[in-house]
Amino acid sequence: MSVFKKLAGQTVIYGSSSIIGRFLNFLLTPLYALQFTNEQYGIITEMYAYVAFLVVLLTYGMETSYFRFSTLKENQTKNVYSNTLYSLLTTSSLFVVIITIFSQDIANWLQYPNHFEYIIWFGIIVALDAVSSIPLAKLRSEAKAKKFALVNFTNVGINIALNLFFIYYCKSNFEAGNSNWIIAHLYNPEIGVGYVFISNLISSIIKFLVLFPEMEFKGRYDLGLLKKMFSYSLPMLFVGLAYVINETLDRAMLKNILFELNLTEGFDSSEALTKALEQNGIYGANYKITMIVTMFIQAFRYASEPFFFKNESDKNSKEIISKMMTYFVIVLVFIFLLITLYLHLFKYFIPNETYWTGLSVVPFLLGANICLGLYTTLSIWYKLSSKTIFGAYISGFGALLTLALNYMLIPKFGFEGCAYTTLACYFSMMAISYIAGRKYYPIPYNVKRILFYILTGGLLYSISLTFDPFEMYSWKEFLYQSALLLTFVVIVYIKELRKEKVVIS
């Protein structure tokens, strides 16, 4: 059981900084909700949807490829690392040049013609984050937990501090007529939500500078090695792009589809765009509530990916993955229940009550993220077997399903259609990956036990609906929901911890 303790320890070390960092960023949601209109928040939501897509495009699966090839005996780790950096620095630099040249055209296309600077800022952010992903991967691979945590906390801390400075201090005081020398020289109200992007840009630059000493170019340029790495990584590019499509493109589609519908209903262009952005902002704000699940999945991936590559030669590796999956599901279901049972409390992370109309999508998005977590873990089979092309096939199917269902459901259900689509997409990808994995890289998952915990969580949530989480809440309802959560904990204890006394010992 030392293996599980080791994996758990790595999850805490490499994931805690990311979890805390993302949670702190999550706390910016109330600030944005209070300081910006639904329309303005919609701009933030849309722009970051494109950023996520572009980061994946510019890393093109080289992070996973680095883990794969740096663990192969025939390769020198330094040579793999250097060539990975050569590749990403070249492509990221070209991207910045291209995005700068066409910034105005892109701004016009996004319907932000007066803010082409947004495009340039985001181009630089994406390029810096793409290059920075490899030194961060190196830190994970070498177990440099303190440096990894330092980089993440520095990046997040600076971003939050700048957001508070520009949006809370400068904006609030300027609008209240309390200007001073600092505000007069550093704040321009015409930039508006652009200060969210400026804060991100500055923090990304500092993160790059902190990581710069890790960017060692000691290995020789090896075209043959790069070809092998590209062959492995390019399918992972499609995996990543499809993931972003499934995860973020719904917000872009929501804005555009609702905009066109509003035009057909007789609204002028300005009104149509405003209404579309308002709905986009509501959906984006409520999506943030589900980020707790996403943060846990990311923390586990940070630890598990290098862990399984390094331990794949272990004769018990498949049994380890199977056992780990069961515990992974338990945690995911627990988080699902924690949020849905206490949604009346979590909604206050969005202090603007106008956003609460979107709370109905939270359970669906949480269920979708559970399926995503399972798919992420199941996908280890095609990474370890070097059959990454299957990842591209599965993810491509998911992306097509996302596009098709969003086009069909958004006109009928609005942002709720996005939530239904996300759930359907991730469930399908999870099922396909499991079926394919059984054929090409069979792992003895305890399917009955996994389904038991998922169904138990679903049943407890259904029982909780006796009380409406969106109405006035009393201590009786609170105790009732707490009893349901405790029931799940007791069931887990009886079936897992008391019987085996493994994971937490």
- The count of strands amounts to 0
Beta-strand content bin: under 5%
The count of domains is 1
How many whole angstroms does the radius of gyration measure? 23 Å
Question: Element order, helices and strands?
Answer: HHHHHHHHHHHHHHHHHHHHH
Major pleated sheet: none
Q: Averaged pLDDT, please? A: 81
Q: pLDDT under 50 segments (min length 5)?
A: none
* Envelope shape: globular
**Helix fraction bin:** over 70%
Number of helices: 21
The class by helix and strand makeup works out as: mainly alpha
Distance between the termini: 9 Å
Describe this structure in words.
This protein is mostly helical. It has one domain (2-500). The chain has 21 helices and no strands. The chain has helices spanning 2-26, 28-35, 38-59, 62-70, 77-101, 103-109, 116-141, 145-175, 181-186, 194-211, 223-264, 269-287, 291-310, 317-341, 343-346, 362-378, 380-384, 388-413, 415-440, 447-464, 475-500. The mean pLDDT is 81.
